[in-house]
Design brief:
two-stranded parallel ribbon, Rossmann fold, five-stranded parallel beta sheet, single chain, alpha/beta, 432 residues, 13 strands
Length: 432
Amino acid sequence: MIYVIVLTLFLIFLIENRLQKWVNFIRFKYDKSYSWPKKNIITNIITENLDKNPIYTKEEFFIHSLYLYDFFLGTNNKPNTHNNEIRYEKKKEILTKYSIDRIGKRGNNAVSNNLSNYISSYGDSLCFCRYVNDDKTWQHSLSKKIKKNVRNFGVGNHGLDQAFLKFKRNYEKKIDRPKKVIFLFGPETIRRNVSLWKHYYEFGNYLNFKPAFLFNKLKKKYVLYKIPNFRKKNFFDLKRLQNKIHNEDVFYKNKFLKYMWKKPYLFSLRNYGIRKITLLLFFTYTYFKNKNKFSFKFIENSKLYKKLNLLGGLFFDFNDKKKMFKENFYIDGTLNVVKLINNFCNKKKIKCYFVIVPTYYDLRYIQKSKDRYFQLFLDKCKKNKLQMISPLNKLIDYNCDTIYADKAYGGHLNEKGNKILSNYLNMYLDEL
């Protein structure tokens, strides 16, 4: 009996030891330092030793501070800057360029910048138009059509809450006072609007802190939770900030802790064990397949493998997002921001428009499943007399690969896709 117990314990110890080593090997093999701008593959595998208190380099901090850091918004495009990005199309590198002018908007020389005759736009990377040049954005195309300058204040990874706070700040500082403003964003915003530290749900995005309008149970209303002040050092004090916000960030307990591999790894399988093992097996198979150039067709022909091969570690993440569009907590969090924007614009006598644009994976999923998963959100906006529109019906008949520039991080519209979007806006927003 003692022999059996000892042997069992030894086997458990051996399995635990090997499991720890392999999980961390796969995690580091694909994600390395989790430097988001440099990655092409996201495993969504996180471990306690590497991700609970992530470490980053001086170079990462410097680049983030130079191009993105904003003490109030968390991130923002820095005025008088320019940058290049590389996207891949049919294994070819395509260089794209963007420029930010003195007031923080993206370059658009389609028409003269008449200060009394312009429209502004705010939102995320779909508004900014990532992976296309300045003269290939939907703002540039729309400007030419309507003979008015359409300003582009979009910022990659911004939530609708950050877009509103940026617009409000620009308005109060008299930087931007349009008569009409477009808020354009992807479905991803439903998560961003209740997030304080992106790393808790968008694993690896650990330099991205943000403010949010969160529901205060004591005050029984939404209040603005500002970013905790950073110390004047070369590095952010992540541990100090983490301790301040993890009780407020819904994703810390609901996602981060549950998805994280922690010692003993075998016990951590109690939380989302199928998800953890599935991702580990998928990237293990991918690793050996690429290394030894072998394949098992019965695996690769399976529905699960095809879905994982398309989305990789983001497969389960995408499912999480879909579920949120069926939960009042997340819908109401975004609906509150829409109401705040609408009320602010009404007071300032500004006509505002809200546009939700599907990314590559959103459109592909909807085309295949016929499940318009964010329809409930659109219906709830309509019920609250808030005009929320979507070019989904305009895009749905197109092959995704012909209208999107990339698949990474959701997928952004290419030149053709941006032209279709500008045509839609021109047609729909006839008052423009």
